[in-house]
């Protein structure tokens, strides 16, 4: 099962909205096949694992290990449970039950009815951690939300407006290695979210340049549609969603989806619901302090990744405030990275 989790990580950032599953086939105490979920629309892990076995004759005496319950419904691909049954694999070991309403025990039932010996809950805790995005989406009815920011040693995330006017170029708090890591993180999530002020002040691209991988879906909060057309976020390199409070507004943007949010309603809560409806399973929030704090205030976050750079501003925009459990600390040259987990449940 540990090997299943290890190879499943090859699908990070590629499989959504499908889960990134890993599968291993064992015969006579030896791995004879393994596979992970292909990019969305491609074969699932169990299919790839079975296909990797050149000589199929030992399958009827083998055990298939898989991080998540095999699917039992037709989607982009046929049901994996049917394929396991077809090849008469007698034993299936499952990390955890699938919470998806189209599966949720049905895959296990099909296998057992066909005579398979099914074991459930092996390394369940580790499998839950691995499938945290997929599970949060289906159990809490919202995306898995990761907050990220960089702050100075004296607790600021941006300099004063006066300093910005003198030097409009972006102020880098972190070093180039930390910035490269952020691009790696972007490639791992389905969406990246930021607010109006961040776009107007920094004109970010919100893409993956210093790493390889898929650009995330760009999610921009622009309630009053203040951002001019020439900004990088409106370049068509990746799908883009614009949250606006202007009702019945005409979509003047090319390749941009306008999504209405209630002006008088809690912004973070409203957006989380809308992103769930749009089938977006994970969001990397790189907004300014106001945007990030709105998610913190509603307890709508799962992880916070906070860089502290070796720099002082003396004055400026204070960093967001949050409480969480530190799960990792790492020194990246002169930067300190802390990753916090939110242990308080929040379902929509």
Provide structural commentary.
Helix content is 26%, strand content 25%. The chain has 2 domains: 131 residues, 3-Layer(aba) Sandwich (Cytidine Deaminase, domain 2); 199 residues, 3-Layer(aba) Sandwich (Dihydrofolate Reductase, subunit A). With 348 residues, the chain is α/β, with parallel strands linked by helices. The chain has a 9-stranded mixed beta sheet. A 5-stranded mixed beta sheet has the order 2-1-3-4-5. A two-stranded antiparallel ribbon has the order 7-14. The protein is built from 11 helices and 16 strands.
Strand content: 15-25%
Tell how many strands the DSSP assignment holds. Answer: 16
Structural class: alpha/beta
Q: State the order of secondary-structure elements, H for helix, E for strand.
A: HEEHEHEHEHHEEHHEHEEEHEHEEEE
Question: Measured on Cα atoms, how large is the radius of gyration?
Answer: 22 Å
Number of domains: 2
CATH architecture of the largest domain: 3-Layer(aba) Sandwich
- Report mean pLDDT, rounded to a whole number: 92
Shape: elongated
The CATH fourth-level homologous superfamily of the largest domain: Dihydrofolate Reductase, subunit A
Family: In the C-terminal section; belongs to the HTP reductase family. In the N-terminal section; belongs to the cytidine and deoxycytidylate deaminase family.
Cofactor: Zn(2+)
Active site: 46
Function: Converts 2,5-diamino-6-(ribosylamino)-4(3h)-pyrimidinone 5'-phosphate into 5-amino-6-(ribosylamino)-2,4(1h,3h)-pyrimidinedione 5'-phosphate.
Which characteristics define this entry?
single chain; 348 residues; alpha/beta; Cytidine Deaminase, domain 2; Dihydrofolate Reductase, subunit A; 9-stranded mixed sheet; 5-stranded mixed sheet; 11 helices; 26% helix; APOBEC/CMP_deaminase_Zn-bd; 5-amino-6-(5-phosphoribosylamino)uracil reductase activity
């Amino acid at each position: 099962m540990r090997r299943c989790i290890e190879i499943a990580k090859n699908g990070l950032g590629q499989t959504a909205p499908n889960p990134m599953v890993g599968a291993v086939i064992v015969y006579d105490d030896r791995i004879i096949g393994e596979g992970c979920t292909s990019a969305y629309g491609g074969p699932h892990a169990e299919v790839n694992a079975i296909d990797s076995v050149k000589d199929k004759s030992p399958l009827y005496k083998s055990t298939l290990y898989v991080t998540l319950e095999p699917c039992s419904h037709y989607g982009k691909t046929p049901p994996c449970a049917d394929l396991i049954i077809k090849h008469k694999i007698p034993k299936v070991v499952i990390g955890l039950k699938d919470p998806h309403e189209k599966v949720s025990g049905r895959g296990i039932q099909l296998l057992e009815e066909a005579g398979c010996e099914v074991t459930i809950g092996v390394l369940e805790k580790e499998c839950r951690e691995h499938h945290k995005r997929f599970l949060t989406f289906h159990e809490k009815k919202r995306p898995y939300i990761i907050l990220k920011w960089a702050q100075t040693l004296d607790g600021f995330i941006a300099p004063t407006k006066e300093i910005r006017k003198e030097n409009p170029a972006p102020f880098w708090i972190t070093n180039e290695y930390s910035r490269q890591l952020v691009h790696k993180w972007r490639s791992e999530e389905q969406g990246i979210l930021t607010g109006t002020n961040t776009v107007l002040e920094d004109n970010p691209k919100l893409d993956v340049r210093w790493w390889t991988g898929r650009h995330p879906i760009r999610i921009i909060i622009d309630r009053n549609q203040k951002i001019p057309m020439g900004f990088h976020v409106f370049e068509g390199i990746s799908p883009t969603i614009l949250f606006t409070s202007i009702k019945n507004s005409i979509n003047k943007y090319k390749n941009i989806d306008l999504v209405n949010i209630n002006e008088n309603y809690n912004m973070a809560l409203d957006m989380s619901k809308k992103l769930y409806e749009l089938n977006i399973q994970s969001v990397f929030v790189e907004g300014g302090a106001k945007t990030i704090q709105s998610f913190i205030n509603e307890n709508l976050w799962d992880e916070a990744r906070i860089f502290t750079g070796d720099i002082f501003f003396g004055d400026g925009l204070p960093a967001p405030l949050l409480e969480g459990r530190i799960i990792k600390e790492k020194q990246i040259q002169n930067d300190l990275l802390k990753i916090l987990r939110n242990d308080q449940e929040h379902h929509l």
